[in-house]
Amino acid sequence: MSIVIATEIDIDATPGAVWEVLADFLSYGDWSNFSKVDGEPRLGARLRMRMPGMSFGSTVTAATPGQKLEWAARIVSASIFEGRHTFVLTPNADGTTHLANVETFSGALVWPLQPFFRQGAKPRANGYDGFNQALKRRVERQREAAY
């Protein structure tokens, strides 16, 4: 069993400009509802994630500047529990960027933890939507300040 939370947003900036903010983990505490990330956006790098009420480690599983950033966290093994967070940046024809923000939870523990991940019949997306909106504001403000 798996649960997928998928959100998306268009940002008025290039994929490179979105990447600069998305990959700047040190600044997350300044703008993001995702409290803090310690580490580097580099393939294989270990990350320390700190959110209200929880802290956990992750490993960067994809880091292609301007295109894709992904990390995964496991409890014991992927068959027990894995959370995989993926950001995909796609250039739009008008010069903006489409951001897909997807979290996939899988493994044996997903079934008993279902109520935590769901709001009614749908996966909870508010925190992901909030992150998208905050990223958009940060990127677009930086773009405006550059002009």
Describe the structure.
- The protein is of the alpha+beta class and 147 residues long.
- The chain is built from 4 helices and 9 strands.
- The chain has a 7-stranded antiparallel sheet with strand order 1-7-6-5-4-3-2, covered by helices on one side. It has a two-stranded antiparallel sheet with strand order 8-9.
- A hairpin with a 7-residue loop joins strand 2 (36-38) and strand 3.
- Helix 1 crosses helix 4 (126-146).
- The N and C termini lie far apart (48 Å).
- The mean pLDDT is 89.
Label this structure with key terms.
9 strands, 147 residues, seven-stranded antiparallel β-sheet, alpha+beta
Main β-sheet: number of strands, strand sense, barrel status? 7 strands, antiparallel
If you average the pLDDT, what whole number results?
89
Q: pLDDT under 50 segments (min length 5)?
A: none
Number of strands: 9
